[in-house]
Write a structure and sequence with these properties.
The protein is an alpha/beta fold. The chain contains three helices and 16 strands. A seven-stranded mixed beta sheet has the order 2-5-8-11-13-15-16. Strands 3-6-9-12-14 form a five-stranded parallel beta sheet. It has a four-stranded parallel beta sheet with strand order 1-4-7-10, covered by helices on one side.
């Protein structure tokens, strides 16, 4: 019953965002997809509550390469690139900024997290040219399956599958599968493979 209700709600949301999608297509034709996408993402991010979750998901399912029907994208979260990919049952918390990134299945992202495309987005080598005019490098970022990113973390490099990135961590280098990392810059303090659970299912 619950799945049926959700399917109907998803369908209604898809119908409601059709005019927005058409506006996005027209804007993309005249200005280019990369110019059109951020503004529409910002506008969709401001719809509050459960209604916003359904409408955002419907919009992103129309415009992104992948956005799963069970993904949850919370209020005030903005995607900056139309090439982002959102996997199955992904959860993205309030107020996040996501760049050109792949969020694999079961990724859990806390609130106010930034996933940005590397730490060389601006060149620094020349002093005769302002930093804003120097070319940078924008690698695509992948967050692996079943990884949890804590609140206010900043991710600038790939994170493997089954990882934990602590709240406030700053990831500047790739994180290996199963790693638990914390701090600025983020460093490994353990592995999920090494965790033991007691009879109550809690980690020891």
């Amino acid at each position: 019953m619950r799945r049926s209700v959700k399917a109907i709600a998803n369908l209604l949301a898809a119908l409601l965002v059709l005019p927005v999608w058409l506006g996005y297509l027209l804007y993309s034709i005249t200005s280019g997809q990369c110019a059109a996408f951020p503004g529409f993402s910002q506008a969709m991010s401001l719809i509050p509550g459960t209604t916003g979750v359904f409408l955002r998901r419907a919009f992103y399912r129309l415009v992104l390469p992948r956005c799963d029907a069970d993904a949850c994208i919370s209020f005030a979260t903005v995607f900056s690139h139309p090439t982002a990919s959102i996997g199955k049952t992904v959860y993205v918390g309030v107020g996040c900024m996501i760049g050109d990134a792949t969020l694999d299945d079961d990724v859990l992202i806390g609130s106010h997290v930034s996933v940005i495309n590397g730490n060389r987005q601006h060149g620094l080598d020349r002093l005769d040219i302002p930093v804003r005019e120097q070319l940078g490098v924008y690698p695509r970022i992948t967050i692996g399956r079943d990884t949890w990113i804590g609140d206010r973390a900043i991710v600038m490099a790939n994170v493997g599958k089954h990882c934990v990135v602590g709240a406030g961590a700053v990831v500047t280098k790739p994180v290996e599968d199963y790693a638990i990392v914390v701090g600025n810059p983020a460093r490994a303090i353990g592995s999920r493979k090494g965790l033991k659970t007691n009879n109550n299912g809690l980690s020891e």
